TrEMBL record:
Sorted UniProt keywords: ATP-binding, cAMP biosynthesis, Lyase, Magnesium, Membrane, Metal-binding, Nucleotide-binding, Transmembrane, Transmembrane helix
InterPro entries linked to this entry: A/G_cyclase, A/G_cyclase_CS, Nucleotide_cyclase
Taxon lineage: Eukaryota, Metazoa, Ecdysozoa, Arthropoda, Hexapoda
Name of the molecule in the record: adenylate cyclase
Gene Ontology terms, MF aspect: adenylate cyclase activity; ATP binding; metal ion binding
Originating organism: Drosophila mojavensis
Keyword ATP-binding appears in the UniProt entry: yes
C-alpha cells in the first residue's frame, strides 16, 4: 500500500521547527525577551508558593513536634532560607536590562538551588551527628520540580543539567546515610535494589521535568508565533481597510460610501451562505442621494480647449490637464472644497458639502481666484494660449451616486444648473458669481456687474438672476498668500498623512504572561505591581476564561478548543510510560507474591504502555529517518500512521487513553498495597522492639518511594496535554485524597515508622506536605500553561476571523475598485502608482458613445427614476465583458458615456464561453452569416469596436423602452418615459488614464471623445448620430446609415452627419440589395 508520510501538522508543534521558524521570521530576540518576562511571572508564583510551603512547614513543626528545642534550628534555617530565596529571585524582577537579566537568571537559579539543597542536607547532617536522627530529605523532589517548573533558567539543557546535579547529590546522600544506616531494613530487599528504586524515581522526575520544559517551549513559541501572525494580520487588515476607505472616499464621501460598503459586504456574505440564491438587485435597490441645503458650487471651464484637442497630441493634452487638475485639487484641499469631477475641460466642486461651513461661498471664490492664478502660471510655463472661466453660485443641491457600476459622486439641482450657466456666460480670467453668492462675500471681495451674456441669458431673465464679476487683480493680495499657504499646507499634509503602523515589537510586548486572577494580588503583595503591570491587549481573553479552572464561558468555544488535535500527545505518553515503568519496577522490587496474577498484570501493562508509546512516536521516528529521501512504507507502517493520526484528532480516544493510564497507575499501586501483610509486619516490628533483636523486619514497601511515585503520577495527571483541564485537576485531586486517605488510615503504622524529615516531626505530616506541595506547584504551573494554550487557541480563532474579514475586505476593495477603474487598471493603480502621479494609456482606436435623455428635469423624484434607468443600463455591461469590452466611463447629468476598445488584451472577436443570446453576439453572428462579407472584412478589429458600441447603443434604446413600459402605470411625470434619447458615436485615437491629485477618476480624452459628445448634443431624440467616417465603418457591417445633412459642431465647424437607422422594433436596418461597396455608400 502506498502511503505518503505527511508531517506538516506535527512540525508546527515540533520544538526544533518552531525555533527555526522564529529565526526565519526574525522574532527570536523578541521571543527571548518574552521568555524572560514570562519567567518573571513564574518567579512571583514560586515566591508565593515557597513562602506558603515554608510557613506551613514551620507551623507544623512548631505545633506537632514534642521536642521544640531540636526544631528551632530547623525553623530558623527554613525561615532565613526563604527570605534569602525571595531576595535573590527578586533581583530578576528588579533588573530592567534584558542582557543583564539573561545571565542573572542563571546566577540566581544556581544560588537558590544551592541554598535549598545546602540547608536541607546540612540540617540532615547536623541532626545525624548531633542528635543521631536519620532523616529523609525534605527538598529533593521539591527542588527538582521547582527547577523545571518555576526557575527562570532559559532553554532546556541548563535546567536539566542543574536538576541532574541535584539528583546526584541526593542519590549520594541516600546511599551514604539513609541506605546504610536505616534500621528498618526490608528483609530480602538488598541495598542495591533500594538504590535502583531511588535512582528510577529521580530519573522519572527528570524525564517529567524535561518533558514539561519541552512542551512549555513548544506552547510558548507556538503562542508567540501565533501572536506575531495575529499582529501581522491585524496590521494587514488595518491597511486593507484603510486602502478600502481611501479608494472609496476618493470618489464618495463617507456618508455615501458607508451604506454602499455595508451593502457590498452584506451581498458577499449572503452569496456565501446561500450559494444557489441570487440577490434581487432591482427590488432592493436603494438610491444613495442626500440633500445639502446650504453650499456653494464652483464650475470652471478651460477656454480654448477644443482648439487644444486638435493642435496638441493626446499625450500632451492629458499631461497638461493633469498638471492643471493636480494643482486645482491641491488648492481645493486647502480651501476645504470637495472636487466632484471633471468633464474633459470642465472642473466643478462644492464647498460645505462634506462638513457644514458658514464660509462656503468665501472658500469657493478664493478657490476660483486661485485657479485663475494657477492657469496663468501654467500658461506662462508651457506657452500655450489657455484661460479659464469660473462660475460660483450658492444654494442647495442633491448629491450622491446613480447606477450600480463605475460609481461616481455627482451633484444635481437647479442651483447646479445656475452655477454651470454662470461659468458658460462668464468672462475668461474672472470669477462670475450670482447675487446670492455676492451677498455672502461682499465684505471680502470687490465686484462689478456681470457680463452682457448673463444679462441676456433667457434662464437668468426668467428667474431674475443678477450676476457679478470678481477680478483677481483687485483681490490678489490675500489670494497669493493663501495660495502659498495652500501648497505648503498640502505638502505638509502629504508628508504627515497616514498614521504609521504599530511596531510589532511593541505589540509582542503586550502578550499576556499568564492568568491575572492570582498575579495581581501577588504582585501587590511583593510590591511588584509597577514592574509587571502590562496593558491588556485588545484580544485579551481574561473576561472569557474562568479564574480557577480556566474554562471558556462560551461552551461552544470550549468544545472547539477541546476537540482540536493534540500533536504533543507523544510527549505526554512518553512521560506516562516512564512513570509506569518506574512504578512497575517498584512493585516488582517489593513483591512478596501475595497477590496472585500480579506478574500477568505487569506484563500486560508493560506491553500496553509500550504499544502506546510506539503508536505515538513511530511516525516521528520515521520522519527523522526518511524525511530526506523517498521511502515506500509497509502496510503495517501505514496502519500505525493512521492509528496515530486518529488518536491525535479524537478527544474521546485521548480521554480514554488518559483514563487508562490513571487506572493502570492505581492498579499497580493496588498490587503494591495488597502485597503488604500489615498484621505480620506490625507484629514482627513490635517484637523486634520488645525483645530487642535485629529480626528480619520485612517492610511491605518503601513509603517514601511510593509517595514520590504518587507525586510523579499527580504531575503526569495534571500536565497531560489536550485533556479537559477540569478533568485533570479533579482526577489529580482524587489521586491525592485517595492516596493520603489510604496511607493515613490503612497503612498509618507503616507510614508512621518510616523516615521523617525533621526530628520528632510526624512522618504522616511530612508525606502530606510533600503531596500537597507537589499538587499546588504543578497546578499553578499548569494553570499558566493552560492559560497560554487557551490564549493561543483564542488568538487562532480570532486570526481566522481576521483572515476572513481581510478576505471580505479585499474582495470588497476589488469590487469597489472595479466600480471606479476598469479591471485592467486596478492592479497597476494598486501596486506602484503614486497618489498624484499621472497614469495614462494611449489607444489608436476607441469607439466612444454619449447617450442623453432629452428634456429630463433633474428633480428629486426624477433622480430616483434616473437611478433605475442608469442601473438598468449598467446591467447591460455584464453582457459586454468578453471580446470587445464596453466600459462605462461616467454619467454627466442625464448623459451616459461609454467606450469600447479600452481593454488592453483585445481578446478574440467571439468567445465560445459567451452566451449566444446576448444581443452583441447575435448581431455579430448575424452579420457574419451574410455571404456578402468575407472573413477578411472582420480582420480590422478597429471597425468592430464601432460596431459593438453601436449595438450597445441600440441595447440602451431597448432598455429605455422596457423602462417606459414598466412605469406606464406609475403616477409621475410622463415626459420622463417617452424614450426620447439621443445618442452620438465617434471613434479614433484616445488617451485614457487617471489625472488630478485627490479623487481617483478614470477618464478618456481626445478628438474622438469631443466629436462623440457633439454628435450627442446636436443629435435628435430617438436617433443615433454619427460622423461620416463612423457611418462608413457601420455600412461595412451592413447597417443602413442615412445622411442627415451638414451640421454645425462647436470647435469643428460644419460637418456631414448621419443617422444609424433603427426600425420600430428597435432592430438595426440592414442593406439588403448590395452589389458593391460604392452602392452601399449611396444609401440614403
Amino acid at each position: 500500500m502506498k502511503y505518503t508520510l505527511t508531517y506538516t501538522n506535527e512540525l508546527k508543534w515540533n520544538c526544533s521547527f518552531l525555533r527555526k521558524k522564529c529565526k526565519e521570521v526574525g522574532i527570536e530576540e523578541q521571543y527571548k525577551e518574552h521568555q524572560l518576562r514570562l519567567s518573571i511571572s513564574y518567579i512571583i508564583v514560586f515566591q508565593v508558593l515557597h513562602c506558603l510551603f515554608t510557613v506551613l512547614h514551620c507551623i507544623l513543626l512548631l505545633t506537632t513536634c514534642a521536642e521544640l528545642d531540636l526544631i528551632y534550628v530547623d525553623v530558623c534555617c527554613y525561615s532565613i532560607c526563604a527570605v534569602v530565596v525571595i531576595a535573590v529571585m527578586w533581583a530578576n524582577v528588579k533588573v530592567k536590562s534584558p542582557s543583564k537579566l539573561r545571565w542573572m537568571t542563571y546566577v540566581t537559579s544556581v544560588i537558590v538551588t544551592a541554598l535549598l539543597v545546602f540547608v536541607d542536607l546540612s540540617l540532615n547532617y547536623y541532626h545525624y551527628h548531633i542528635n543521631q536522627w536519620i532523616l529523609a530529605s525534605m527538598y529533593d523532589s521539591y527542588v527538582i520540580l521547582m527547577i523545571y517548573i518555576f526557575f527562570p533558567i532559559p532553554y532546556i539543557f541548563p535546567p536539566m543539567a542543574l536538576a541532574v546535579y541535584v539528583s546526584i547529590l541526593y542519590i549520594c546522600y541516600f546511599v551514604i546515610f539513609q541506605n546504610y544506616d536505616n534500621q528498618f531494613r526490608t528483609g530480602n530487599i538488598t541495598r542495591y535494589s533500594e538504590t535502583i528504586v531511588v535512582l528510577c524515581n529521580y530519573i522519572g522526575l527528570n524525564v517529567i521535568g524535561t518533558g514539561f520544559r519541552v512542551m512549555r517551549e513548544i506552547v510558548v513559541r507556538a503562542s508567540f508565533l501565533d501572536r506575531h501572525q495575529y499582529v501581522m494580520e491585524a496590521n494587514a487588515l488595518r491597511s486593507t481597510r484603510a486602502r478600502e476607505r481611501v479608494f472609496l472616499h476618493s470618489i464618495l464621501p463617507p456618508q455615501i460610501a458607508q451604506p454602499i460598503q455595508d451593502e457590498i459586504r452584506a451581498r458577499i456574505e449572503f452569496s456565501q451562505k446561500h450559494h444557489n440564491m441570487l440577490v434581487n438587485n432591482r427590488r432592493d435597490r436603494v438610491i444613495a442621494i442626500q440633500m445639502h441645503p446650504d453650499v456653494s458650487i464652483l464650475y470652471a471651464d478651460i477656454v480654448n480647449y477644443t482648439h487644444l484637442t486638435t493642435t496638441l497630441s493626446v499625450k500632451e493634452l492629458v499631461t497638461l490637464l493633469h498638471e492643471l487638475y493636480a494643482r486645482f485639487d491641491n488648492a481645493a484641499s486647502r480651501y476645504a472644497v470637495q472636487r466632484i469631477k471633471f468633464l474633459g475641460d470642465c472642473y466643478y466642486c462644492v464647498a460645505g458639502l462634506i462638513k457644514p461651513d458658514p464660509a462656503h461661498a468665501i472658500c469657493c471664490v478664493k478657490l476660483g481666484l486661485c485657479m485663475i492664478d494657477i492657469i496663468r502660471e501654467v500658461r506662462d510655463e508651457v506657452q500655450i494660449g489657455i484661460d479659464i472661466r469660473v462660475g460660483v453660485h450658492s444654494g442647495s443641491l442633491f448629491a450622491g451616486v446613480l447606477g450600480s457600476a463605475k460609481l461616481q459622486y455627482d451633484i444635481w439641482g437647479p442651483d447646479v444648473l445656475i452655477a454651470n450657466k454662470l461659468e458658460g456666460t462668464g468672462m475668461p480670467g474672472q470669477v462670475h458669481v450670482s447675487e446670492r453668492t455676492f451677498e455672502l462675500i461682499k465684505n471680502w471681495f470687490e465686484a462689478r456687474p456681470g457680463t452682457e451674456a448673463a444679462r441676456k441669458d433667457a434662464y437668468f431673465q426668467k428667474f431674475n438672476i443678477f450676476t457679478f464679476l470678481i477680478d483677481p487683480i483687485e483681490n490678489n493680495k490675500n489670494i497669493e498668500l493663501d495660495l502659498q499657504e495652500s501648497f505648503e499646507s498640502f505638502s505638509a499634509k502629504e508628508r504627515n498623512e497616514g498614521t504609521p503602523e504599530l511596531l510589532i515589537n511593541e505589540e509582542l510586548k503586550k502578550m499576556p504572561l499568564g492568568p491575572k486572577g492570582f498575579n495581581e494580588p501577588l504582585t501587590r503583595l511583593f510590591n511588584f505591581f509597577n514592574l509587571t503591570k502590562q496593558k491588556e491587549s485588545p484580544s485579551s481573553s481574561r473576561p472569557e476564561i474562568g479564574l480557577f479552572l480556566l474554562h471558556y464561558h462560551n461552551p461552544r468555544l470550549e468544545c472547539q478548543y477541546l476537540h482540536q488535535p493534540d500533536y504533543m500527545l507523544k510527549y505526554s505518553v512518553l512521560q506516562a510510560w516512564c512513570s509506569a515503568m518506574t512504578l512497575i519496577y517498584l512493585q516488582l522490587t517489593y513483591d512478596h507474591e501475595l497477590v496472585k496474577g500480579s506478574y500477568y498484570l505487569d506484563a500486560f501493562l508493560i506491553l500496553a504502555f509500550s504499544l502506546l508509546l510506539i503508536l505515538t512516536w513511530y511516525k516521528m521516528i520515521c520522519f527523522w529517518v526518511y524525511a530526506d529521501r523517498p521511502h515506500r512504507f509497509s502496510e503495517l507502517s501505514c496502519a500505525l500512521f493512521r492509528i496515530a493520526d486518529n488518536l491525535q484528532r479524537s478527544l474521546i480516544k485521548r480521554i480514554l487513553i488518559y483514563i487508562f493510564i490513571i487506572v493502570a497507575y492505581f492498579a499497580i499501586i493496588s498490587i503494591i498495597l495488597n502485597d503488604c501483610d500489615m498484621d505480620e509486619f506490625q507484629k514482627e516490628h513490635i517484637d523486634s522492639i520488645l525483645y530487642q533483636y535485629d529480626g528480619e523486619n520485612t517492610m511491605c514497601f518503601a513509603p517514601w518511594a511510593l509517595t514520590c511515585m504518587v507525586c510523579s503520577i499527580i504531575t503526569n495527571g495534571i500536565i497531560f496535554t489536550r485533556i479537559p483541564f477540569i478533568m485533570r485537576i479533579v482526577i489529580s485531586l482524587v489521586v491525592c485524597v485517595t492516596y493520603l486517605s489510604i496511607m493515613l488510615y490503612q497503612f498509618e503504622y507503616l507510614v508512621h515508622i518510616s523516615l521523617t524529615t525533621n526530628p520528632f516531626f510526624k512522618s504522616e505530616s511530612a508525606h502530606c506536605l510533600m503531596i500537597i506541595s507537589t499538587f499546588l506547584a504543578v497546578y499553578c504551573k499548569e494553570r499558566q500553561a493552560e492559560f497560554n494554550n487557551k490564549m493561543n487557541y483564542k488568538w487562532r480563532v480570532e486570526l481566522l476571523k481576521k483572515q476572513e474579514d481581510a478576505r471580505l475586505a479585499d474582495q470588497s476593495i476589488t469590487i469597489l475598485l472595479h466600480n471606479i477603474l476598469p479591471a485592467h487598471v486596478v492592479n497597476v493603480y494598486l501596486t506602484y502608482l503614486a497618489k498624484d502621479e499621472l497614469y495614462y494609456e494611449v489607444y489608436d482606436c476607441v469607439a466612444v458613445m454619449f447617450a442623453s435623455l432629452k428634456n429630463f428635469e433633474l428633480t428629486l423624484s426624477n433622480l430616483r427614476v434616473l437611478n433605475e434607468i442608469i442601473s438598468e443600463f449598467d446591467r447591460l455591461l455584464s453582457f459586454y465583458r468578453h471580446g470587445n469590452v464596453v466600459e462605462k466611463i461616467k454619467i454627466v447629468g442625464s448623459t451616459y458615456m461609454a467606450a469600447c476598445g479600452l481593454d488592453v488584451r483585445l481578446s478574440s472577436l467571439v468567445s465560445e464561453k459567451c452566451h449566444t443570446t446576448d444581443s452583441v453576439f447575435k448581431e455579430i453572428h448575424a452579420r457574419r452569416s451574410m455571404s456578402v462579407f468575407s472573413s477578411d472584412s472582420f480582420s480590422n478589429k478597429k471597425d468592430e469596436l464601432v460596431f459593438v458600441i453601436a449595438i450597445f447603443a441600440l441595447d440602451l434604446m431597448r432598455t429605455l423602452w422596457v423602462c417606459n413600459n414598466d412605469y406606464k402605470n406609475v403616477p409621475i411625470d410622463r415626459d420622463v418615459f417617452t424614450a426620447d434619447m439621443s445618442i452620438g458615436i465617434s471613434s479614433g485615437e484616445v488617451m485614457a488614464g487617471v489625472v488630478g491629485a485627490s479623487q481617483v477618476h478614470y477618464d478618456i480624452w481626445g478628438h474622438a471623445v469631443n466629436v462623440a459628445s457633439r454628435m450627442d448634443s446636436t443629435g435628435v431624440a430617438g436617433k443615433i448620430q454619427v460622423t461620416e467616417e463612423t457611418a462608413n465603418i457601420l455600412r461595412r457591417f451592413g447597417l443602413v446609415c442615412s445622411y442627415r445633412g451638414m451640421t454645425f459642431v462647436k470647435g469643428l465647424g460644419t460637418l456631414p452627419t448621419y443617422f444609424v437607422e433603427v426600425d420600430n422594433n428597435y432592430e438595426f436596418m440592414y442593406a439588403r440589395d448590395i452589389s458593391s461597396e460604392g452602392s452601399q455608400t449611396d444609401v440614403i
